[in-house]
Design goal:
Helix content: 40-55%
Largest sheet: 6 strands, antiparallel
Oligomer: single chain
Strand content: 15-25%
Number of helices: 12
Order of helices and strands: EHEEEEHEEEEEEHHHHHHHHHH
CATH topology of the largest domain: Jelly Rolls
Radius of gyration: 24 Å
Shape: elongated
CATH architecture of the largest domain: Sandwich
Number of strands: 11
Distance between the termini: 75 Å
CATH superfamily of the largest domain: Jelly Rolls
Length: 324
């Protein structure tokens, strides 16, 4: 990446056999940034290229990858002690960053921050290219509440204030790092960190976007009710929030994650049991379709909610239709 010497990390999947590409790419990302899990659609072509250099407290990387998803879940956060901030400057293509209940849709020229100390998700719908700067959290001199307000928010050059002025300068400094000698690189790296601190402070002070996290989470869960493994940790990881924050969100709506999911599943099964198009489907099959792995557990939960067994409900609804 930097001229005149070999980069600290250099990885390309293009010359690897297909079975080796994904594990090699995941190892490269985890070594360069923080421990993450990478997923790709096996029926879609993809490849990845990564170069990275360390310059004192600053790390600069250029990454080309996609389509695919990069997840840092709660287990990875607990196992990996690195607590840096990742600053993503989108160069080509698009990316979707999810953390702390927010989603940042990045287009070329946009910038966003991610905090490695909390779960996040990066969705890449296409092959794209980005520059990623990695800096210790303490160097941005932000309070914890400011960091929570900063993550997964879009900074772009059209913004008023410091960001609009400093982002082009940031790009110029990073490019200059690639051409400078060793001593000069260290000085430029410190200047880059100072600019990031200024941009982050201004961005963290902006009013938050309207909260639609509850709607996004519940709409997403409704589309996945049939997945037996759909649980709080899976939901939290998908939306880039901590498990604790997810539970707090559901508590604000006077429910729990498990109770809300179970109720929606029972409602869906209740409707399907009496639908003419599925009248032939066994009760056990309906239970499995909506995420219940145990028919007896499904029957008990159904009776508790509706006062009759699934079979009784189906017969009663059929008798009503016959009378009509």
């Amino acid at each position: 990446m930097l001229t005149g010497h070999a980069p600290w990390v250099s990885c390309s999947t293009r010359d690897l056999v297909p079975d080796d590409r994904l594990p090699s790419w995941q190892r490269a990302l985890s070594r360069t940034f923080v421990d993450v899990e990478v997923t790709v659609e096996q029926d879609r072509p993809w490849d990845g290229d990564l170069t990275a250099d360390r310059l004192g407290v600053l790390q600069i990387a250029t990454q080309e990858f996609g389509p695919g998803t990069v997840l840092r879940g709660a287990r990875a956060v607990a196992a990996d002690p690195r607590t840096h901030l990742l600053v993503r400057r989108q160069l080509e293509g698009t990316a979707r960053l999810l953390q702390d209940g927010r989603t940042a849709e990045l287009r070329p020229g946009d910038l966003a921050f991610l905090d490695a100390r909390r779960p996040f998700r990066i969705v890449l719908p296409e092959r794209q290219r980005a520059r990623i700067l990695m800096v210790p959290r303490a160097l941005l001199r932000l309070e914890e509440r400011q960091l929570h307000a900063l993550t997964a928010t879009v900074v772009d050059e059209s913004a008023e204030g410091a960001a609009g002025l400093l982002l082009p300068l940031l790009d110029g400094l990073v490019d200059e790092v690639a051409r400078a000698g060793s001593l000069r690189r260290e000085q430029l790296a410190r200047a880059v960190v100072d600019i990031l601190a200024t941009v982050a402070l201004e961005q963290a002070g902006r009013p938050p976007e309207p909260a639609d996290l509850w709607v996004r989470i519940t709409e997403s869960v409704r589309t996945r009710l049939g997945e037996p493994g759909l649980g709080p940790q899976t939901i939290a990881d998908q939306h880039g929030i901590s498990l604790r924050y997810l539970h707090q969100l559901f508590q604000r709506h006077d429910t729990t994650v498990g109770a809300w999911v179970r109720t929606r599943r029972l409602e869906a099964a209740h409707e399907e049991l009496v639908h003419p198009a599925t009248a032939h489907r066994p009760v056990a099959a309906v239970a499995v379709r909506w995420g219940f792995t145990s028919p007896s557990h499904f029957s008990r939960a159904f009776r508790d909610m509706y006062g009759m067994s699934p079979a009784q409900w189906r017969r009663a609804a059929g008798a009503v239709r016959a009378e009509d």
